[in-house]
Write a structure and sequence with these properties.
mainly alpha; Helix Hairpins; elongated; cytoplasm; exodeoxyribonuclease VII activity
């Protein structure tokens, strides 16, 4: 992968921490109650996109950890279930 392609990909896909920070800022703006309805809906939509992206990133990281902890790299991953769900 060339450096130009790598930079382009990085710019298109924000890193997890940046997305999380943006999501936190959106929550603060929405909780303030000072946004007009259309702006609030746009912020909410962006927040949902960021939350889904973050969830996907976390699921991928979880799978990587499961693979790394597995004794048999060829064994299938089990479905993750949280006690808090």
């Amino acid at each position: 992968m060339s450096k130009a392609n790598q930079t382009s990909k990085t710019e298109q896909t924000p890193v997890f921490e940046t997305s999380l920070k943006e999501l936190e800022e959106i929550v603060i703006r929405l909780e303030s109650g000072d946004l007009p309805l259309e702006d609030a809906l746009n912020e909410f939509e962006r927040g949902i996109q960021l939350a889904r992206q973050g969830q996907k990133t976390l699921q991928q990281a979880e799978q990587r950890v499961q693979i790394l902890l597995s004794h048999d790299a060829q064994s299938p991953l089990d479905e993750f279930s949280s006690d808090t769900e």
